[in-house]
Every structure is written in structure tokens, then in C-alpha cells.
Write a structure and sequence with these properties.
Strand content of chain A: under 5%
Number of strands of chain A: 0
Order of helices and strands of chain B: HHHHHHHHHHHH
Distance between the termini of chain A: 52 Å
Number of helices of chain B: 12
Number of strands of chain B: 0
Distance between the termini of chain B: 44 Å
Shape of chain A: globular
Number of domains of chain A: 2
CATH class of the largest domain in chain A: Mainly Alpha
Order of helices and strands of chain A: HHHHHHH
Shape of chain B: globular
Largest interface: A-B, 25 and 28 residues
Oligomer: heterodimer
CATH architecture of the largest domain in chain A: Up-down Bundle
Largest sheet of chain A: none
Radius of gyration of chain B: 20 Å
Chain lengths: ~160, ~325
Amino acid sequence: MIILFYLAGAVALISTVAVILQSNIVHALIYLILSLLAVAVVFYTLGAPFAAVLEAIVYAGAIMVLFLFVIMMLNLGKFSVDQEKSWTSGRVMLVPAIMSAILLAQLINVLRNYEHSIDVVEVGVLEVSALLFGPYVLAVELASILLLAGLVSAYHLAKK
Amino acid sequence: MTWEVGSPLSIISILAVVIVVAAMLIWVERRLLSFWQERLGPNRVGYFGLLQVVADMIKIFYKEDWIPPFADKFGFVLAPAIIMMVILLSFAVVPFAPGVGVIDSNIGVLFMLAMASLGAYSVMLGGLSSNNKYALLGALRATAQMVSYEVFMGISLLGVVALSGSFNLREIVLAQQDGWYVIPQFVGFVIFLIAGIAESHRLPFDIPEAEQEICAGYHTEYSGMKFGMFFVGEYLGLVLISSLITVLFFGGWLGPAFLPPIIWFSIKVFCFIGFFILLRAAVPRPRYDQLMSYGWLVLLPISLINLLVTAAIILSMQ
């Protein structure tokens, strides 16, 4: 299980870097889906099967589909690939790369002193739902109100 | 080697049987369709034309495997693989009989839904990377159809999940010993059936690949074995949907003891496959906007009300 965790983590990292470096937007999106699926596997190996499946259904299966749908409608051609290539060339990427390297170094520095082994506690669907509709019911309801507001405004915009 | 869930024997035989059955369905469908249309159908190769599939496969392997120069190679090659992978992975959670299955998972229903939602990428990528207007139209239709019907598919299942109290497909089957869920969950069953046809985009919901309007839809540019994978993938989807209906609503392998469980399971699955083929022969294709408004305006409210009523009855019985 722990090997799976590290493997999935590595896949997630590599594919996320590939998302940034890809100049073809569809390929970048496929890497993003791969990264989300890898995160789902990370969740699963840490003993959260429900979160893992929701990650796959909601993020990889629904939100990314809508992203790809929009890209399909925009019909971005060769031009956008060239534009993206010019944006991700060596000179332009230099300063952001240095700055993120500094942040990464700081993060590693913080995590270095944090000794913690991965202890897997399996949390099933029943426990998660009992928590969601027990102590956290207010948060669930607030989130549903937010979604309803989004739905109503989307309907309003689409009607125009 | 024993029959256990997850033993190599179990896994290998499931994989082999599922793929062979899906391939043989090409012949079954053609024979049944011609039977209903008072023709003979393919009856020349082997007994009753049984070897027609083999002949078709040999032919399809010898076809030129052409990638159009204007297509996006990465997506074009990836798309047919996705549909096969996703559907074969879904079979991992299907309980065929006691001891026959790949994994006994506590999140089986959710895993199946996740795989169904990932299946949309196959048609999307296929259509998008073909760089062809008919393929793009087909992919647009397929995406809208699959994303919307996925919603009702999920909600229609929740009644069964609430009744059995589990996401585990094996436990759902065992919970049906006192009576199949098709009786208390008849509405859920009908919605799942319709959504299942729309998910696997078979006729009458084959709007993404409607020949008369948009060539062959998202697989217009595909040839050779890549087309073959889309083709077999469709039949695999048919087997999967039939198995899931059997498991969720018709008691899976349960049945009177004079036949072994796996036979009961196969009989039920083949009844549904036959029903789907009959649907193809009998029902015309709706228009694209009819399909969408039917889904959102009729199926969604009914499935929500079904869930609400089921939950209320369960709570009042406690």
C-alpha cells in the first residue's frame, strides 16, 4: 500500500508538471485528468475510499469533462499552440521557475522537521456520511445553498 | 486454483468470457435483428454463421490502420483504448456468482459510476482529435448526452443503495434474497435502463453516431482495429449494463436451486441483451433536443421523487 502511495504521488507530480509544460491544451487537460486520478489513488491508499471515488467522479469525471467540452466548442487550432509555445519558452519561464524553486525549498525545509509516519485508518462511506449529516450538517447545507445560487444565476445567464 | 473472489482463475476467466461474449454479440445482434426483420442474416460461415465474428476479426486486422495526417495523434490513439479500459475495469466490481468476481469492494457502485463518467473521454477525445466536423459534432452530442444521463443513472441507483444499505454490489445481491429490487424500485429500474442505453449510446439513443445525419459521428476517421475497439467497446458496454441491471434489480445470481448461480446470472444477462437488441429493432431514434429535454425535464424530477419516496418509506418502517 505504501509503495502504491509513493507511486501515485510521483505520477501526480509528474503529470502536473506536464500540464504546465504542454503547449497543446487538450494534451495538457489529459495530463490534468491523469493527475486527478493519481490523487484519487493517493486518497485510496491513505484509507479514504469515499473521497477517492468522489475525486474520480466529480473532478476527473464531471468538471474536467466540462473543461474539455468548452475547449471543443472554442476550436483552438495551431495558433494557440504556437502562442502557448512562445509563452513557455526558456526565457519567459526562468523567473517563475526560480521563484517557485525558492518556495519549494522553503516547503521542504518545513516538512524536513516534521516526522510523521503514514498510518492508514480506513474510513468507510458510513462514517463519512454520519459526520457530514451530524456535526458538519451546517457546512453541507451552506454548500448546497451556494450551489443553488450558482444554479439560479447560470439559468439566468443562459436565458439572456 | 480455486473459485474465489480475486483468484487468478476467476480474473482470467472473467476477462476471457466477457471479451468473447462481447465479440460474439456482433453475430447475435445481426442474427436477432434479421430474425425480427424476417431476413436470414449472416448464416454462411460455420454452423448458423457462428464463425462470422472470426471472419470479421480477421478482416479488420488486415485493414490499413490509418491515422489521418490532420489528426492529433496522441488523442486519436488514446481514445479507443480508454473505452476498452474503462468498461473492462467496471467488470472488476460486478459479482457474477458466489466466489466469481475480481474484487469485493465496499465502493462498488461508486466505482462503477466513476468508470462510467470517465468513459465520456473516449468519445470526446476521439471526436476532438479527429479534426473532422462530423466527428466533432458527434463528440459534442455524445458528451452532452453522457454527462446528463450519468446524473440520472446515479440518482436512480440511490434507491437500491438506500434499501440494501450498502455500496457493495455483492451485498446488494444478497440483500435481495427476500425479493428482487425491481418490485419496490420499479421507477429506478426504468430510469436506470434508459440511462444505461444512453450511456452506452446504442440505438435508439445512438445520436452521437447517427449515420443519416453525421456520417458515423465521433469514429468517422477511425479504421482497422481502432474502429474495432470502439465497436467491441459498445458491445462490452451492452454486456456491462445488462449485468448491472441484473445485479442491482434482478437479484444477480439468485434463483431456484436446480441451476447453478452462474447459469442464473447468464440467463438474466442474456434476457436483457436480447431486450436491448429488440429495442434497436423496434424503436426509432429521437431528435437530439428531445433526448436532452426528456432527460432533464422528465427523468430528473422522477428520479428525485423516487429517491425521496423511497427514503421516506424506509424511515417510516424503522
